[in-house]
What we know:
Number of strands: 7
Order of helices and strands: HHEHEEHHEEHEEH
Oligomer: single chain
Radius of gyration: 16 Å
Amino acid sequence: MTTDACWSAVPPSGTSATQKDWLTRPGSLTKLLATLGELRLVVILEKPSPPWKEDLDFLNAAPEDRFWIREVLLLVDGEPCVFGHTVVSLDDSEGAWRSLRDLGDRPLAELLYRDTEVIRSALTSAEMESSHPMAERVCEVVSRGRALSNGRLLARRSIFRRSSRPLLVVECMLPELWRRADMRA
Length: 185
């Protein structure tokens, strides 16, 4: 069994109009989240670490390469709505993307959308099966190892480039986000 998701420019089948909008909308997800309530970012992990195989494949990187991983949880009114996973080569985290290490509890959007040199690839999205490393990590972080029983885990990803150096951003949207977005729609 593969743990890779089926990423596509077209959102997964069965997604609602609201989900499609959130999965495909360009720009800052953080800014969009702030329209739903009081936004807070919690850094879960920030250190040199091996990425998932799927991340390596998407970045066209070798398994022996070294990476800096940043994982965050975005809360709206205290409720987890998005799990963020960022991957950059360790060398680039000390070079073209060194400001990533200085973000602390500030959102990555501050770095990505204020720099005119940063270019974003097209967005792709997928549904995270329970065996996918991201789904397992979300369950570990959000529900203390228990499976999330109240909805689908949908994610979007893209690569940002600064001075041609790639930074992978994956945003996994949690069931609470869909509940709030549907109430607002």
